[in-house]
Amino acid sequence: MIISSATTVQNDFTKSAPSFICFLIPSTYKHNVDEVMVAYKGTKAGTLCQYIANKPDKWGFKLFCRASSSGIIHDLLLYQGASTLFNVALPEKEQGLLLGAKVETTLRKIITQPSLSVVFCDNYFISFNLIQKLNANLGVKCICTVRPNHTGGATLMPDKELMKKGRGAFDHRSAEGVISSEMV
């Protein structure tokens, strides 16, 4: 389920979705796509209640959200396992993406002025190929943390060599329009 200022969705969660006043506030050009835990320790949530060990609130509802630099969440998507994107029509080329990439592209499509926007995200949502596609198709710039095996053609100096150079050392590479950088 996507709750957004741009879309209206009618489904089972409509009863529990309050009227979000924050959707009326215009977003800035700096966006963040991340996951949020809404604390819940009850027993009536069924499979919607998730456990994530690294979060301050370990039990609760997992939401994927897009927030602006003003700190306001503008769009959110309730995690429901395999049926998370049940009401979203994805093009055929996006069907094969991993869940994080599907969420990222879905939340980015709602951005009103993508060519002026920058999206910040973590390594759960991104890969080298996805950055290229989003920039080419939507014109959205992306700043993110990427796992070493997801850098595509821009391989960086190994961490041990960079650590030997000391504090403040950095390495950067460019491949196919994407710049990768790493620093100590």
TrEMBL record:
Tell me any Pfam family this protein matches. DDE_Tnp_1_7
Q: What are the residue boundaries of the PiggyBac transposable element-derived protein domain, all occurrences included?
A: 33-165
Alphabetical list of InterPro entries matching this protein: PGBD (IPR029526)
The UniProt entry, under PANTHER family, shows: DDE_TNP_1_7 DOMAIN-CONTAINING PROTEIN, PIGGYBAC TRANSPOSABLE ELEMENT-DERIVED PROTEIN 3-LIKE
**Name of the protein in question:** PiggyBac transposable element-derived protein domain-containing protein
